[in-house]
Design brief:
Length: about 325
């Protein structure tokens, strides 16, 4: 299954001694910074609009983190560019641990799509992975497409289906494009600055479908306004037990998003360690897990090493997938 979720004999010793002195000074500065951290309020930058899945994760995390650190934690939405605007702002923010960014899988996909110059290794240090979600193909409750088979048949027959996503090159755009490739059909991809605006346009009847996470449509589904046709996951989603996976229809495709906390790359390691410990306690607390599950979001925690491993693996994966898709 496809899964897309740094005299010469006298000079050298002197240079070496100077280098050691610089390292010692840097380490001392890092330790001092960590000892005083945090000494003011903190901020979590969210690269998408308020109300979407990424925003909901950030707010649940911020509410619990401030109890761990003893300082207020605010959320700042800086949408635009399919997530690139907010993530670039996060990379350029103050590297003292007080400014965090909730990055998403788009940190990897946008650069491979030629839509951003972000580099996950050079721009950020990972703190904690908080969430993982699959894509859900969703239509209006009044849609003529009753099943995923109906939807696929329409695409294969040449109907110009308008499918909304959270931004060009963003994961939900890639998810729909990957499906388009698998069925050899054709979609008219309509980008928005986040999943919430895409869902609102579906509710208004302006597009035929969206590919977003289950959490971003679950309330409207439960209210009877929207209908999920299929999820792009290995297994059925707990929040939508009656909704089939694509593999159940013979399409072996699993793709989705993840969300995690990062800080700018120049943040001292000692400060990152303090923040990572607090983030671990927060992310593994009963209250945070309960809030994530209440929001119908997929829960997954990983420490900095585990988060790095995930990004390494998926960066290689998207480096192969994206060039094979027609994203124009």
């Amino acid at each position: 299954m496809k899964k897309y979720l740094l005299g010469m004999g006298m000079i050298v010793p002197l240079m070496a001694l100077a280098a050691c002195g610089d390292d010692s000074s840097t380490e001392a500065n890092g330790e001092e910074a960590a000892e005083n951290f945090p000494d003011k309020s903190l901020e979590v930058i969210v690269p998408y609009a308020e109300g979407g899945g990424t925003d909901l994760v950030a707010r649940a995390f911020a509410d619990n983190l401030q109890e761990e650190l003893g300082e207020s934690v605010s959320v700042s939405n800086r949408e635009g560019g399919g997530g690139a605007v907010g993530m670039q702002a996060g990379a350029n923010s103050s590297a003292d641990g007080h400014s965090m960014t909730l990055v998403t899988v788009e940190l990897l996909t946008l650069p491979h799509s030629g839509l951003a110059e972000l580099n996950y290794e050079e721009d950020f240090k990972p703190v904690a992975l908080l969430n993982e979600d699959s894509a859900a193909i969703t239509v209006h409750a009044d849609s003529e497409y009753e099943t995923i088979e109906d939807f696929i048949d329409a695409a294969e027959s040449g109907e110009s289906l308008q499918i909304g996503n959270s931004g060009t090159g963003a994961i939900w755009h890639l998810a729909a494009s990957a499906l388009e490739q698998e069925i050899e059909g054709s979609f008219n991809h309509v980008p928005f600055d986040g999943a919430a605006p895409a869902v609102n346009n579906l509710l208004g009847g302006h597009i035929d479908a969206v590919s977003v996470s289950p959490a971003e449509v679950i309330n409207q589904v439960e209210n009877g306004d929207l209908r999920v046709l299929a999820v792009m996951a290995d297994e059925r989603v707990d929040a939508l037990p009656d909704v089939p996976t694509l593999s159940e229809t013979g399409i072996e495709l699993s793709i989705g998003t993840w969300r995690g906390i990062t800080v700018p790359a120049d943040t001292p390691d000692e400060v990152v360690d303090v923040l990572a410990d607090a983030a671990a306690a927060t992310a593994q607390s009963d209250d945070f897990i309960e809030r994530i599950e209440t929001l119908q979001l997929g829960y997954r925690y990983a420490d900095p090493a585990g988060f790095t491993e995930l990004m390494d693996d998926q960066d290689a994966l998207f480096g192969e997938l994206i060039p094979s898709l027609d994203l124009n």
